[in-house]
Amino acid sequence: YNTPNHPILKDIVYWDPHPQPSNHPCFGSLLIDHYSHLDAATIIRNITSLLETGNTLNLILDYGDNAAYLAYSAPDDPQG
After folding, report:
1. If you compute the radius of gyration of the chain from its CA atoms, what whole number of angstroms results?
2. Burial track 47-73 (b if 16+ CB lie within 10 A, e otherwise)
3. pLDDT tens digit sequence for 7-63
4. How sure is the predictor about 69, in pLDDT bands with cuts at 50, 70 and 90?
5. CB-based contacts of 61: which residues, under 8 Å, 6+ apart?
6. How far is CA 45 from CA 19, 39, 71, in A?
7. Could you tell me the pLDDT band of residue 65, with boundaries at 50, 70 and 90?
8. Predicted TM-score of the model (pTM)
9. What distance in Å separates the CA atoms of residue 78 and residue 49, rounded to the nearest whole number?
10. What does the alpha-carbon distance between residue 17 and residue 67 come to, in Å, rounded to a whole number?
11. Per residue in 20-38, is it b (16+ CB within 10 Å) or e — as a string?
12. How far apart are CA 47 and CA 40, in angstroms?
């Protein structure tokens, strides 16, 4: 799956099931914006926190620190 909105990024595996462009932040564009400095904190604070679809699950594997992080995005009000 390789489109202008969802390009192949080295060492990154992702899938955005929502049609783009839309009025919501695109997962691929957020990854590209932060690609040069992706770490667990950046992904959780600057990517996951902006996605409010309620169906984004990010698994970050940090082999250097032997750690795994799981981040889930949802709207402020889960009822919508």
Report:
1. 13
2. bbeebeeeebebebeeeeeeeebebeb
3. 888 988 887 666 666 666 677 888 889 998 888 999 888 888 777 666 778 899 999
4. very high
5. 68
6. 24, 10, 10
7. very high
8. 0.68
9. 14
10. 27
11. eeeeebbbbbbbeeeeeeb
12. 10
Query: Both tokens of residue 27?
Result: 């997962």
Alpha helices in the chain (DSSP H): 27-34, 40-46
For 33, which DSSP code?
A: H
Nearest to 74 by CA among 52, 43, 58: 52
Q: First vs last Cα of the chain: how many Å apart?
A: 30
Amino acid 64 reads: G
